């Protein structure tokens, strides 16, 4: 029987990430969330965004950026009775496969949408990734201090484009210069907006009840307008349903302004009340591991390498699935079938990297290593199972990589395969020629790879453009069909860093034709480690 303190530690944890399109307000919301979590004295110091605008390929800037992003990779803070872990999802130029994989390590997501713009590309892609595990989604419509689109139209767009039902929890009263606050549909109260409070935790100014005459005094003509609107909204939208939220089918929606620090706390209240506690995790044995299991287990979803050649250490980010981490404990690394003693795991109390004495399911710890840990690695108390659901994602950008000194082909290949094991990039070797194709999800990864090849493997490489639109891992139930496919489609086939057969499509049309022409072949968008 797990003891009460252990269960209590699990039950109070909420581990989430933010998904959004660049500029929707992720950084600003993160700052305000930390302000509410009392982790920042003053909002506005999470990351110097201006300092993060790296001139491409500028070593120092990239180092600085990566240094900053290590400390903000995971932020842990208390909110009410909960302990919240917010995992950063690299966003602008540093958008990468790590962004996708981070989403496989959380139990819920906050989707931030710019109220003037609605659903944008990146959000659509990130939502697709959350669908792999039906992750519960909370929505925040941001920038209400500006003129936004019709709120009902925004909900419609989320429902139709992202295929998830919306249940408004708060409803905005005006926007832009006329933004007055929100009506909380579940609490039946109006929370009034005050400008100029962006850097402080504000006392909520609340008017109870939609029919309260105080509302007319406070809102003037907006009060009646609000009453009419709410009637309409209640008729036209879905009610919140916890089961459907937990199944990833319905999202509670909040309105506010991150910059004005209004509404972020309403959203946090919903998060700690409804978002799942650390969830069970599937394994290759077919049996899931629950958080309350006393034996320790966890998996690695991200590796961050130090860009500085003098410090070749890496930090592996591990999500704890079950049991308790204690400083100095011994873990079993399943892939290497080896015991390791972990003396100095890092935890990530917002802004500081700190050494932890203990950590619990839902928490992320950072393990120092020199390349012995890979993405997807499972650590246990000795058992041999492996966690599933930490995939590679099909790259979206491709370049041919070429050596300046052709004699170093072997080192190049070795470097690329190792970097691909770390998840920095993916490498493909066509069956039909000697090209080496590098594939990435975000464009900065190409620069990172060239820097690291030079500093860690002493090879000078350059890129050339190549006509590739996408890649798919292929498999088939029939060996014979796969052999036939291998012969017929050879010009489009390649092996990835782990020798898995991959279809390299010059265009999406080509890919569609191939899937039609070879119905016995399965084309996969992700590949399990
Ligand atoms: P991101 O991390 O999702 O990319 O977005 P970020 O928070 O950096 O916000 C992008 C821009 O939008 C920033 O302005 C930020 O100040 C602004 N913003 C965020 N939330 C709100 C809001 O509620 N209302 C308004 N009006 N603006 C908001 P910027 O000018 O690009 O950067 P900065 O100079 O303010 O740092």
Automatic annotation (TrEMBL):
Positions with a binding annotation for GTP? 20-27, 88-92, 142-145
Q: Where is the Tr-type G domain?
A: 11-279
One GO biological-process annotation of the entry reads: regulation of translational termination
Q: Which residues form the signal peptide?
A: none
GTP-binding as a keyword of this entry, yes or no, is yes
For this chain, the family text in UniProt reads: Belongs to the TRAFAC class translation factor GTPase superfamily. Classic translation factor GTPase family. PrfC subfamily.
UniProt GO MF annotations: GTP binding; GTPase activity; guanosine tetraphosphate binding; translation release factor activity, codon nonspecific; translation release factor activity, codon specific
User: What GO cellular component term, any one, is given?
Assistant: cytosol
Q: Which gene encodes it?
A: prfC
Origin: domain of life? Bacteria
Query: InterPro entries from the xrefs?
Result: EF-G-like_DII, EFG_III/V, G_TR_CS, P-loop_NTPase, PrfC, RF3_C, RF3_dom_3_sf, RF3_GTP-bd
The name this protein goes by in its record = Peptide chain release factor 3
Give the organism the record lists.
Pseudidiomarina piscicola
- Extract the Pfam families matched here: EF-G_D2, GTP_EFTU, RF3_C
Give the UniProt keywords, A-Z: Cytoplasm, GTP-binding, Nucleotide-binding, Protein biosynthesis
Tell me, in a sentence or two, what this protein's role is: Increases the formation of ribosomal termination complexes and stimulates activities of RF-1 and RF-2. It binds guanine nucleotides and has strong preference for UGA stop codons. It may interact directly with the ribosome. The stimulation of RF-1 and RF-2 is significantly reduced by GTP and GDP, but not by GMP.
Write down the CDD domains for this protein, in alphabetical order: RF3, RF3_II, RF3_III
Q: Where in the cell is it found?
A: Cytoplasm
């Amino acid at each position: 029987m797990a003891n009460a303190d252990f269960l209590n530690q699990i039950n109070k944890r909420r581990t989430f990430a933010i998904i959004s399109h660049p500029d929707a307000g992720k950084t600003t919301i993160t700052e305000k969330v930390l302000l509410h979590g009392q982790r920042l004295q003053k909002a506005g110091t999470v990351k110097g965004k201006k300092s993060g605008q790296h001139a491409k390929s500028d070593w120092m800037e990239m180092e600085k950026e990566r240094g900053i992003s290590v400390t903000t990779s995971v932020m842990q803070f208390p909110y009410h009775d909960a302990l919240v872990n917010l995992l950063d999802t690299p966003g602008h130029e540093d958008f990468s496969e790590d962004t996708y994989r981070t989403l496989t390590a959380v139990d819920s997501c906050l989707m931030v949408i710019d109220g003037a713009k609605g659903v944008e590309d990146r959000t659509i892609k990130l939502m697709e990734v959350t669908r792999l595990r039906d992750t519960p989604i909370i929505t925040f419509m941001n920038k209400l201090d500006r003129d936004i689109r019709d709120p009902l139209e925004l909900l419609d767009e989320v429902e139709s484009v992202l295929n998830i039902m919306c249940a408004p929890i708060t409803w905005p009263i005006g926007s832009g210069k006329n933004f007055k606050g929100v009506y909380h549909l579940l609490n039946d109260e109006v929370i009034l907006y005050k400008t100029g409070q962006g850097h402080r935790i504000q006392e909520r100014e609340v008017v109870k009840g939609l029919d309260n005459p105080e509302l007319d005094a406070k809102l003037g003509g907006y009060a009646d307008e609000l009453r009419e609107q709410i009637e309409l909204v209640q008729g036209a939208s879905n009610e919140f349903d916890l089961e459907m939220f937990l199944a990833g089918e319905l999202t509670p929606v909040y309105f506010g302004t991150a910059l004005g620090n209004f509404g972020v706390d309403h959203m946090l209240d919903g998060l700690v009340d409804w978002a799942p506690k650390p969830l069970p995790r599937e394994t290759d044995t077919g049996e899931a591991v629950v958080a309350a299991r006393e034996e320790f287990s966890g998996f690695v979803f991200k590796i961050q390498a130090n860009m500085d050649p003098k410090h070749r250490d890496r930090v592996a980010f591990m999500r704890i699935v079950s049991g308790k981490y204690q400083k100095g404990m011994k873990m079993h690394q399943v892939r290497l079938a080896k015991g390791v003693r972990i003396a100095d795991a890092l935890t990530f109390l917002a802004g500081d990297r700190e050494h932890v004495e203990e950590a619990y399911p839902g928490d992320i710890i950072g393990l120092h290593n020199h390349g012995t840990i890979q993405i997807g690695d499972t650590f246990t108390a000795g058992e041999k199972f492996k966690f599933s659901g930490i995939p590679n994602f099909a790259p979206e950008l491709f370049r041919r990589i070429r050596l300046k000194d052709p004699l170093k082909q072997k080192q190049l290949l070795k470097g690329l395969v190792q970097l691909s094991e770390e998840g920095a990039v993916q490498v493909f070797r066509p069956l039909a020629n000697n090209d080496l194709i590098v594939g990435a999800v975000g464009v900065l990864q190409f620069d990172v790879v060239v820097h690291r090849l030079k500093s860690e493997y002493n090879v000078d490489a350059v890129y050339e453009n190549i006509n590739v639109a996408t890649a798919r891992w292929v498999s088939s139930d029939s060996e014979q069909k796969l052999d036939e496919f291998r012969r017929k489609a050879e010009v489009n086939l390649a092996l990835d860093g782990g020798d898995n057969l991959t279809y390299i499509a010059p265009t999406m049309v080509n890919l569609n034709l191939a899937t039609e022409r070879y119905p016995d072949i399965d084309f996969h968008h992700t590949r399990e480690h």
